[in-house]
Amino acid sequence: MKIYGSLALFCLLAPALYAADAKDEVIKASKKLAEKPNYSWRTTVAVPENARYKPGPVEGKTEKGGVTHLLMSFGDNSVDAVLKGDKGAIKTQDGDWRSLQDVEGEDGPRRFMAGLLRNFKTPVDVAEELANQSKSLKKEGDALEGELTEEGAKAMLSWRRGKGSGGPEISNAKGNVKFWIKEGELSKFEFQVTGSMNFNGNDVDVDRTTTVEIKDVGSTKIVIPEGAQKALS
Q1: For 27-59, how does the pLDDT look when each residue is reduced to its tens digit (9 = 90+)?
Q2: What count of other Cβ atoms lies within 10 Å of the Cβ of residue 30?
Q3: pLDDT at 88
Q4: In terms of C-beta density within 10 A (0-12 exposed, 13-18 middle, 19 or more buried), how is residue 228 classed?
Q5: Domain span at 50
């Protein structure tokens, strides 16, 4: 009876133990990537055809303990930005580089963009956050996948994730996540989130799938324009 009881208990605990191991696997794979001297990535966001806001791709490069260079597009507009520690620089439409601190004092889209950049997180940080905010992870094909908690889905629905960032009220938040690991290192992840965001009393349904693909690990080169270097100093 004791043997059968122990076996039954193991069967009940096994899924939870594997889920914890799967989360640890993702976090270890993310940390292994973070230890590399540099890497690049490409982020794409898929939204329904009728969505008003259609973000373009993001091309990113980062160095361990160094700078991060971002090229982003939003509709017909593009953004070139460099981040280092708690400082940042953004290129204006006139071709000049200005510090985030200067831009934050303005009204309009550059102020909004400065807020996004202040709350920017590298793929490693986002992947760890997703793993910790997942209910459980399981092996499906060549990926580890699972469902996000409600709080995790809310966090990923908000463009401005960060302490004191505020933002619209979010309801009915749901999400799922997938991770791909190659040779013990994070190589790709994807998350889909849905929910409703309230803007000035109007509820807007959101359905967004974000895919992040890691590339050029250890061979990424970052050249900081002179104007950006001055804005960062």
Answers
A1: 999 999 999 999 999 999 999 988 877 888 999
A2: 25
A3: 94
A4: buried
A5: 25-232
Is the per-residue pLDDT at 221 higher than 90? yes
Instruction: Indicate whether 79 belongs to any domain.
Output: yes
Query: What are the residues whose beta carbons fall under 8 Å from the beta carbon of 36, sequence distance 6 or more?
Result: 64, 185, 217, 218
In-domain check, residue 20? no
pLDDT at 167: 65
| Total domains present in the chain | 1
Give tens-digit pLDDT for 81-99.
Answer: 999 998 999 998 888 999 9
CA atoms within 13 A on the CB side of 14: 7
Whether residue 46 is contained in a domain is answered as yes
Sign of CA dihedral 95, 99, 100, 106: negative
Place 14 in a pLDDT band, splitting at 50, 70 and 90.
very low
d(CA 63, CA 172): 37
- Token pair of 115, please? 């807020």
* Beta bridge partner(s), residue 80: 71
Contact (Cβ atoms closer than 8 angstroms) between residue 161 and residue 130 = no
Contact by Cβ (8 Å): 203, 212: no
CATH number of residue 60's parent domain: 2.50.20
Angle (nearest 5°) at CA 223 between 222 and 228: 115
- H/E stretch holding 123 reads helix 123-132
